[in-house]
Design the sequence.
């Protein structure tokens, strides 16, 4: 495994190359509180291109900002920086990474060739409608995952219609007929809204979903 750092504003984002290869990269987005895997996951072992994994801000070897301020859109910008560095990629997102992967699929549809949404930590997020949120303060730590990330991203607002809008953007602008494939078995309201959109596929496993995105 080799690691390089991509700059996003004041953050250094760790981008790990788990295996080399020819062709389009497979970009892995991890779950809440996790970090990139150290080896190629079983489901990606037949991918012919590079297998690359991103540590989100506040996770793994990436920068941990002072005082929190985490949103899914901040992680979307992290992922966009990694995608810009790679040029194009197929995405596999687990948990929180699935939600961020969905946003990336819609925002950068011309450069994302298939997105797989899988189970993992942080897939539920917070409420689906605005609520009053308590103010909190946490003790600072010098290691990841950042406690602020765990709290703030664990209650991040995820309206179903917002998620569905990104899936429609992906379907309308992608070169693929089915640019999003859902393999997650646990489906909170935002993900159920995505599944119900035309052009969104379902599969039994990540490996199965990746078959249609290899060429």
Sequence:
């Amino acid at each position: 495994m080799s690691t390089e750092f991509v700059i996003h504003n004041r953050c250094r984002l760790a981008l790990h190359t788990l295996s080399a290869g020819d062709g389009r990269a497979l970009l892995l987005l991890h779950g809440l509180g996790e970090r990139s895997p150290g080896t190629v996951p079983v489901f990606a072992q037949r991918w012919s291109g590079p297998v690359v994994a991103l540590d989100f801000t506040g996770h793994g070897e990436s920068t941990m900002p002072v005082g929190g301020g985490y949103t899914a859109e901040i992680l979307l910008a992290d992922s966009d920086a990694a995608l810009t560095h790679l040029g194009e990629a197929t995405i596999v997102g687990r948990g929180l990474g699935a939600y961020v992967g969905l946003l990336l699929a819609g925002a950068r549809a011309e450069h994302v060739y298939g997105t797989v949404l899988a189970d993992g930590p942080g897939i539920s997020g917070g409420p689906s409608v605005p609520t009053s949120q308590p103010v909190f303060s946490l003790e600072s730590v010098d290691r990841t995952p950042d406690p602020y990330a765990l709290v703030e991203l664990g209650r991040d607002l995820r309206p179903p219609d917002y998620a569905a809008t990104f899936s429609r953007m992906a379907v309308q602008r992608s070169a693929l007929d089915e640019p999003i494939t859902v393999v997650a078995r646990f489906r909170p309201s935002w993900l159920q809204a995505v599944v119900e959109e035309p052009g969104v596929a379902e599969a039994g496993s990540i490996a199965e979903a990746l078959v249609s995105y290899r060429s």
